[in-house]
Amino acid sequence: MNPHTQADLPRFDAGLRFVALDVETACSDPASICQIGIACVGLDNSIRTWTTYVNPQVAFSPFNTQLHGIGPAHVRHAPGFAETVALLEPLLAGQPVIQHSSFDRRAIHGACAAIGRVVPPWQWGDSVRIARMGWPEFKGNGGHGLAHLKQRLGLSFRHHDAGEDARAAAEVVLLAEERTGLGFDALLGWVRTAR
Q: Where is the secretion signal located (predicted)?
């Protein structure tokens, strides 16, 4: 497997609204990232995804491998986290980064700490929070996890694949915006300034 380059990342000449990010991990340590996926949402709400395996340089737990289907053979020739985050940082530095729950941010921060790297200054938002604003009736009635949202909102994706989960998080944001008539900034309570 050839390492990815900057040219492999999704491009939107007109610009991006936000990027959704998801990770899968090799074991219970959030820093053990073995796959990263992003879903880039253009100004026209079109979505382009990008996914890569990441060599976590730790042992895989059977539980995690059973969950997402990724094992040592998948990551043997994959880039390490340092190379992958360096590739993503220029794209994500200027965009809101949406995760579904706080796990992905913790994983990125943990993986940065594990290699002694400064954490990228990404502006994180949470699509769970957005889903709670869009569908408050799901509280106590299945919740706002991706598996339940997949069923209730008719989403089509393969759960526990980083690229697929990132796309699903992006779709949740877009559907919540449509349902509420509010942009994700308002749903998150952000006050954005012009760049």
A: none
Which pLDDT tens digit goes with each residue over 16-67? 999 999 999 999 999 999 999 999 999 999 999 999 999 999 999 999 999 8
Domains observed in the chain: 6-187 (3.30.420.10)
Q: E-assigned strands of 64-119? A: 96-99
Q: What is the DSSP letter of 166?
A: H
User: If you search the block for the tokens 């706002």, which residue do you land on?
Assistant: 144
Crossing angle of the two packed helices 127-134 and 162-180, in degrees rounded to 10: 40
Angle 34-36-38 from CA coordinates, rounded to 5°: 170
Detail the DSSP E strand segments found in 9-164: 16-25, 33-42, 47-53, 96-99, 123-126
Are 39 and 49 in contact by the 8 Å Cβ rule? The answer is yes
Per the CB < 8 A criterion, the answer to whether 102 and 75 are in contact is no
User: How many residues appear in the chain?
Assistant: 195
* Pairwise CA distance, residues 147 & 96, whole Å: 24
